Amino acid sequence: MPLYEYVCPRCNAEFEKLQPMAQAGAADCPNCEAPANRIVSLMAPAQVAGGSVGGGGCACGGACACG
Ligand SMILES: [Zn+2]
């Protein structure tokens, strides 16, 4: 069963909920019981392994605060 992340538009609470895909997108805030919005988190691309980042990429040494 997938784990979904939600954020409450009313009180800004973030929470996670295990639920079947059939019910994805429907969850109530545990704080205020308002209908929460699902956070769509993209899978992290596993393409950053090894090598240096050049060109337009971020070779972050802390300069761009991307982390
Ligand atoms: Zn709430």
Can you characterise this structure?
With 67 residues, this protein is mostly beta strands. The chain has a domain at 3-39: SH3 type barrels. It has strands at residues 3-7, 14-18, 37-39. It has a 3-stranded antiparallel β-sheet with strand order 2-1-3, with no helix packed on it. Bound molecules: zinc ion. Zinc ion (ZN) is lined by residues 8, 10-11, 13, 29, 31-32, 34.
Question: Brief overview, please?
Answer:
0% of the residues lie in helices and 19% in strands. The chain is mostly beta strands and 67 residues long.
Overall geometry: elongated
How many helices does DSSP assign?
Answer: 0
The profile of the biggest β sheet is: 3 strands, antiparallel
Mean pLDDT: 79
By DSSP, the count of extended strands is 3
List keywords for this structure.
single chain; mainly beta; binds zinc ion; 67 residues; elongated; SH3 type barrels; 3-stranded antiparallel beta sheet
Helix/strand layout:
Blueprint: E1 3-7, E2 14-18, E3 37-39
Antiparallel strand pairs: 1-2, 1-3
